[in-house]
Design goal:
alpha/beta; D-Maltodextrin-Binding Protein, domain 2; 2 domains; 5-stranded mixed β-sheet; 15 strands; about 40% helix; about 25% strand
Length: about 250
């Protein structure tokens, strides 16, 4: 009788311990990376509906190297920082330019890419940069980007140029309207511009005066441990042969 009671007591205590202690069977933390669904070659959704691109593959490598799991979540770019701070996602690794306004809202990793802003026009277009920014012309830009903000503040509000700015959900959509003749040119980072030149009958006209920027990953201000992991992972990746393989695969050089 005593043995049965002792066995029952041990069983109950074991069950209580399993219920209250951290379980080895608990679900592993998966970090959610917010990406622009249409920003090739850095981030995009492929024909099968799967996230892909330079940043997607780079973060996959970092996650494996640093011992965490990651899921890539396509979302609207103009709301991506509010989504990060609302904890709908955990990081942004998707060709995000670093600037002071964004630094006030998030913390950035070390930079991993330098980027320039350019104008894209039809391949046979004869207009110069100055002629594109002339009265009556329409120029496209992706909403929520640093180039959109810079053009608004430095060219339009100051009255330096007389043209209309047309907003798009992505740079490739703006390129389509360049080809359709709805706008004369589109302003964007040089990486998606080069990608467009490979795929469409368009050309890069040149820079339009905006200073060069750098890409980095973004995390919430309080996520210092995650920031440390990402920085360490980025350093390892950029020092590894896989970095050159990624650049070659996605033709980002």
């Amino acid at each position: 009788m005593k043995k049965r009671f002792l066995f029952s007591l041990v069983s109950v205590l074991t069950l209580l311990a399993l219920a209250t202690a951290p379980s080895v069977f608990s679900q592993e933390k998966v970090y959610i990376n917010g990406i622009d669904a249409n920003f090739p070659p850095f981030a995009f959704v492929d024909k099968n509906g799967n996230p892909d691109g330079f940043d997607v593959r780079a973060l996959d490598w970092i996650a494996k190297e640093m011992g965490f799991k990651v899921k890539h979540q396509p979302m609207d770019w103009d709301g991506i920082i509010p989504s990060l701070n609302a904890k709908k996602i955990d990081m942004i690794a998707s060709g995000m330019s670093v600037n002071e306004k964004r630094r006030e809202q998030v913390n950035f990793t070390i930079p991993y890419w330098k980027i320039a802003q350019v104008l894209v026009a039809k391949k046979d277009a004869k207009r110069t940069v100055d002629q594109i920014f002339s009265k009556g012309n329409k120029v496209g830009v992706q909403r929520g980007t640093t180039e959109a903000k810079w053009i608004e503040e430095n060219l339009i509000k100051k009255g330096k140029k007389k043209f209309s700015l047309v907003y798009y959900d992505s740079a490739p959509l703006a390129v389509e309207d360049v080809l359709n003749g709805r706008i004369v040119a589109a302003a964007m980072d040089d990486a998606p511009a080069k990608d467009a030149v490979k795929k469409k009958p368009v050309k890069i006209v040149g820079k339009f005066g905006m200073p060069d920027e750098e890409f980095a990953y973004a995390v919430r201000k309080e996520d210092t441990e995650l920031l440390k992991k990402l920085n360490e992972g980025l350093k390892k990746l950029m020092a590894s042969p896989h970095w050159a393989e990624l650049k070659k695969k996605f033709e980002v050089d």
